[in-house]
Amino acid sequence: MSRICELSGVNRQIGHKVSHSNIKTKREFKPNLVDVTLSSDALGKSFKLRVTAAALRSVDHRGGLDAYLLKASVEELSTRAAKIRRDLKKKLGEAVAA
């Protein structure tokens, strides 16, 4: 399973572990990923996503999955999240046209 957030695109970072004698060895910093089920009000469905805890707080702050996806850029979303965003825009476009 990949260590990339499906909503924010955050992945692992590479850095150094620095000893007391200032010897540097490579290490990685992994994101705090959580498996969650988020529901879309407009689509009436629930989606299982793997997101960071920070992205989960952002979803909460923006007012739900729909608002987060509409405001997010397509480049940072995963392919699954981008598909959900496309379906959401299509559904909301139909609602405005009707």
CATH architecture: Roll
- Spans where pLDDT lies below 50 across 5 or more residues: none
The CATH H-level homologous superfamily: Ribosomal protein L28/L24
Rg for CA atoms: 17 Å
The structure class reads alpha+beta
Highest-level CATH class: Mainly Beta
- List the strand order in the largest sheet: 1-2
Helix-strand topology string: EEEEHHH
Provide the residue-averaged pLDDT: 94
Assign a percent range to the helix content. 25-40%
Distance between the termini: 41 Å
Q: Please give the domain count.
A: 1
CATH topology: Ribosomal Protein L24e, Chain: T
User: Main β-sheet: number of strands, strand sense, barrel status?
Assistant: 2 strands, antiparallel
Number of helical segments with 4 or more residues: 3
What would the principal axes of the Cα set say about the shape?
A: elongated
Please report the total strand number as a whole number.
4
Strand content: 25-35%
Characterization of the model:
It is a single chain. The protein is an alpha+beta fold. It has a single domain (13-97), classed as Ribosomal protein L28/L24 (Ribosomal Protein L24e, Chain: T, Roll), CATH 2.30.170. Helix content is 37%, strand content 29%. The chain contains three helices and four strands. The protein has helices at residues 53-62, 65-71, 79-97, and strands at 13-18, 24-29, 33-40, 45-52. The strands form two sheets. The chain has a two-stranded antiparallel ribbon.
